[in-house]
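Collaborator request log, item 7. Partner lab (contact: R.S.) asked for a structural prediction of RNase H type-1 domain-containing protein to inform their binding assays.
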Amino acid sequence: GSCLGNPGPCGAGAIIYINDKEEKLKRPVSNKGSILLAELIAIKMVLDYIESFSKEQINTLTLFSDSQTALGILTLNWKSDSYHQTINEIKGKIKNLNEHGFLINLNWTPGHANIKGNDEADSLAKEAAKEAETLAVDDIVFTKQDVKKAARNSVTKKWQRRWENSDTGRHYFRFHPEVKDKVKKDFPSKKNVQHNQQFTNRLF
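Returned to partner:
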């Protein structure tokens, strides 16, 4: 998987070796996605391809990915805040292939280590990421973090308008016209509180 910015245009790429044949796959994923999404789609793309074969043609798939996060989510049940549908689809495909007699092995391989198949897949993913820049807005994949950020920005803008148009607190407004600045000063972070406490303890 490759992403031009995180989030940004992202794409997936894969190289499949079947006997003496080599199949190259690539797919533009989203014009506002993440590297994790691209890595997951790359794995899903390979599974989609393998589903077209019968057990007699292929009975074992050894899949290599340089994304420890994607592999951890799929094999070790690591938690993910996003892409639940994609993750569940991949797990469902693996389960379905196993039930039909396919043996699926997911393995990690180091990235950017001059490993032929992985480097070629990375090049395909980069090509796909560039193609993803032209995807329509409808193809944007929104994550849980995107929704939270949009909600925070919306609330902050509304609060800012109320603060600017309010008839009260005008003296305070002269020193703190920005809501963001007011929030930071009125509600210090836990880290800052701890530092202040440590400093106070040294004084006494």
